Model the fold of this input.
Amino acid sequence: METKQSKLIRGVEFFYEMVKASVYFWFLLLKNGLVYGILPAVTYTMMYSTTNEKKEEKFFSVLKKRRTVIPYGKLISMAWFLTGSLLAVTYFLMSHKDTHSFGLFQVASLVFFFLFTIYLCWVAWFHVKGVIKINCYALSLDQLVRHPVKSLYIGSLIVTASLIAWVNLFVFCCIVPGLFCWLVEKGLCKNQSATPTVTEMR
Done:
């Protein structure tokens, strides 16, 4: 009985930490101006949810903490935001045009945005691991291709998160960002020895 209770307590504590991590994600996203905020938000939410920072520091202290500026972070975030916005606007403006060429463009744009999001998660993970050199962006692209299983794992999380947002936006906002970042970090850390470049670039 005690074991079940302890598991329940740990489960409740984990849920609470993921909610706080999600709040932190939205805080960072807004703090960085939405357009420029996705990479810092994913990076530092991942860092918060997977380190002892959430246990050793009070949550409000974490909110006020000054973070290291990510090189080209605003540029990558803006490119991601504009790509997603362009895809959404194009879809709504031209969805009534049932043409083959538009269908191909739509699919190609969606695939590009999907891969861009996976790439952004790789970049965030390398920053969490301390790889903050400029060429980590090239390294992230290399790892995206070199480790397709891990990239597909991130992709499956993106699809799942999108479905949750479609079904229940409130649940998505409350827990999914924190849980997503936690799962990405844990998934990429598996068999980390298969990514020797992480150690080499530190």
